[in-house]
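During the reporting period the student researcher (J.K.) took over the structure-prediction task from the postdoctoral fellow and processed the backlog of single-chain submissions. One of the processed entries is reproduced below for the supervisory committee.
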Amino acid sequence: QVQLVESGGGLVQPGGSLRLSCAASGRIFRINDMGWYRQAPGKQRELVAVITSADYTNYVDSVKGRFTISRDNAKNTVYLQMNSLKPEDTAVYYCNAEIATTDWIRLNEYWGQGTQVTVSS
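J.K. obtained the following structure tokens:
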């Protein structure tokens, strides 16, 4: 069984920074893409950032230049450094990963439990 455990959310003032972490544990052969999604109240879940196994990254336009996604493959962990936070960044942030658990080929999608990020003065 694979688990994704997130940490690092909280309350921060506008202009502040937070760093989210998400660690995968369990029977893992390899991890492909890893990403962060967010869901604000009354809105659909949206992709914030993704990083491939080759360290290619992509971001939603609204966070480009402010957020940075990275990963530590030795620790099966993905990070999201969030700078210059705005009230509109307030949401529950979810970690997502494509993980092979039975062999090197077949990938399944896993989600973290979510961590609240609130940007408010």
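The committee noted the following: The chain has a mean pLDDT of 96.
J.K. will present the remaining backlog at the next meeting.
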